[in-house]
Structure formats: structure tokens, C-alpha cells
């Protein structure tokens, strides 16, 4: 049990630490299009991301799937850029439901990439069986994701209230659109810089 908790703590700190900025940005990009009651829809998206990264985390950590770390580190910010651009381009979902039923598939595929990134960190810590470390690390990551998303929801909610209370937007819908675009473009800018720095050489 102590080993499970130890790896759970490692997984949690790995997702909430400043070193995990790329994963945090991806979660923020996923969360940017939700507000109010639509946050329930985000659970399907996050669950798909969890399934995706759990698969490659297990495969890569056990040596079944070997992806060069340099390639993985470059692909992760590209998934963030793609998600942010999709947020900006698909504006119809702001006015009507459903809000992109393809997004769980979208998140699941990108989760496969992020799982390889988690695995490169976890492989350095193995000293025997991988079952307990994998389980504990995965649980820690999930708890970390919940914390990140809760903070994102609170922060985005505050931004929405500020915009609605200002005289800039004409309505709550346009205020929401301003927030989605602004947050997404900031995330895209940071992730683009990351991708440029990590470009394989």
C-alpha cells in the first residue's frame, strides 16, 4: 500500500508541478469551451483523455511501445496547439448544442501522445514489478487532473463574470466567445513556443 501511495503522490506532483506546464496547458485548452452546466460534458472528454494516456503509459512503461522521448516532447505541444485552434475555429458550438461530440475521440487520440510523456518520467523509477507503480502513478495523475480542472473552472468562471459585467461585450454569449478565443490564443502562443524549442534536431 505504501508503494501505491508513493507512486500516487509522484503522479499527482508530476501533473501539478511547473514542469508539467505542457499537460496543464492541454487540460486548460480542453476546458476552455465549457461553462456552467456544460462542465458535465467535459467529463466525457477528460475520461477519453484518461483512457488514451493510460494505454500508452502502460505500453511505454512496460517497454512494449518505445517512442523516442525527443519526438514525444515535441508532439505534446502540437496537441495543445491543435486543441486551441479548434476552440477558435469551431465557433458554432458557442451558440448551440451539442458541443462537438467528436471531442472525446479528439482527446483520446491526443491522450495517447501524452501517455508516452508520462512514461518517460515513470520508467526512471522502476525497481521491479510495474503493476503497482503504474496503478499508483495513474491514480495520482487523475487526482492531479481533477485539481487542475477545478481550478480552471473557477478561474474561467471568474473571467466570465468580469466580462459580462463589463461594457465590452453585448451579451453573455459574446462574452463567452471572447473568453474562449482569448484563453485559447494564449495557450496556442505558449505551446507554439514550446514546440519550436523542442523541435527535434
Shape: globular
Q: Distance between termini?
A: 42 Å
Mean pLDDT: 84
Number of strands: 0
Largest sheet: none
- SSE topology string: HHHHHHHH
Helix content: over 70%
Class of secondary structure makeup: mainly alpha
Task: List the domain count as a whole number.
Answer: 1
Radius of gyration: 18 Å
Characterization of this structure:
- The chain is mainly alpha-helical.
- It has one domain (2-197).
- It is built from eight helices and no strands.
- The chain has helices at 2-16, 21-31, 39-61, 69-89, 92-95, 103-122, 131-165, 172-197.
- α2 runs parallel beside α4.
- The chain is globular.
- The N and C termini lie far apart (42 Å).
Notable traits:
201 residues; mainly alpha; 8 helices; 77% helix
Q: What is the secondary structure topology, with strand pairs?
A:
Elements: H1 2-16, H2 21-31, H3 39-61, H4 69-89, H5 92-95, H6 103-122, H7 131-165, H8 172-197
Helix pairs in contact: 1-7, 2-4, 2-7, 2-8, 3-6, 3-7, 4-6, 4-8, 7-8
